[in-house]
Amino acid sequence: MSALNTRVSLLALACAVSSYSAMAEDSSLTNPSISAVLDGYYQTGDRPMAEREEGFGLGETELALSANIDEMFYGKVTAVIELEDGETELNLEEAFIQTLALPNGLSVRAGRFLSDIGYLNNQHKHTDSFTERPAVYRAFLGNHYFDDGIRLSYVAPTDLYWTMGVEAFGGDSLRAADEHGERDFDDVGVYTALTKIGGDIGIESSWQLGFSYLRNENGLAYAEEHEDEEETADEHAEHSHSASYTGENTYIADFVYKWAPNGNYKYQNLTLSGEYFRVTDIFGEEPGHVDEVDDMDDHEISDDYHEGWYLSSVYQFSPSWSAGLRYGQIDTFEIHEDHLDPQKLKETEFSLAWHSSHFSTVRLQYTHQTGTNFDGFEDDNIFTLQYVMSLGAHGAHQF
Length: 399
Description:
The chain is mainly beta. It has a domain of 269 residues: Porin (Beta Barrel), CATH 2.40.160. The strands form 2 sheets. The chain has a 16-stranded antiparallel barrel with strand order 1-3-4-5-6-7-8-9-10-12-13-15-16-17-18-19. A two-stranded parallel ribbon has the order 11-14. The radius of gyration is 24 Å and the shape is globular. The N terminus is likely disordered.
């Protein structure tokens, strides 16, 4: 009986190997890349509009699956597990297909994906050199903007790298506040246009410039009576992927410069980057609520704008150690009864990271924050100890 079982087992194994070999010969089938990213931290304070809270906590635990579907399409799914108000939530961050064989440098991506606007937005947060995105991202893009939509991209046949793209999204996370639940939002609310150009300087340096425009059909905030101060503070403290400040038009300029001796980034490299955001047409007068802002000058509503920027420098001075310095600030407005209250937030951040390998990072970060008119937050010095560990396939990072 044992001999019979052995023959049956060997037969099953032979069938399995034969079946696998048959699939492997089919060029339309590939082995998917599967990965997970673990993110944990301890932090000594809270930051405005940030995802990490004071104390021990988990950042985003990311699970990803990707593969070429066949010779024509590529697909990827990324799920994020995170804690909010003590409860575990599963969010789908990416679920898209992308063409692989369109002619003339064209490609199409459809589904849920990260918008390609700006420099940082199309990169997953675990690749960042700091524990949080800059304040300008947290304020205007809800940390990082991903959405359901479609993108058309074009890479020009030029000596310099030059790409252009247009996108259309639902835009739910970028909608302006609807305190009365009376607004009729557009189903396709966000349109973007972007271009990026870059190249090499010798063998040791490379650069890239980018310009992006985002049109938010649902971004206009109406000048209406706001909630009391305590509720407003809770609104800014709440963990959310939605933008805290919106407008109809957002303009973004970004740059990045990278250097490595002899072009070898493994042992030593320097990255300088920065972005500037300007959000215009942020307030309007809604029919039925105009009487609440009779005393506000028309130019106060139409001419003011949100803006923000950051500059970052990250130097990897050995294969195992890197240090980063970043400064950023945002200047925003909120309506309180018959006037606009200006707000300002400044952040200076220093990080020191130890990389045991390409798959693991332990980071210590110091943040000095100062703010004006951000209810519920005070000037503070915050320390964060973070680990980021990658399991499984780990693709190349964005430029």
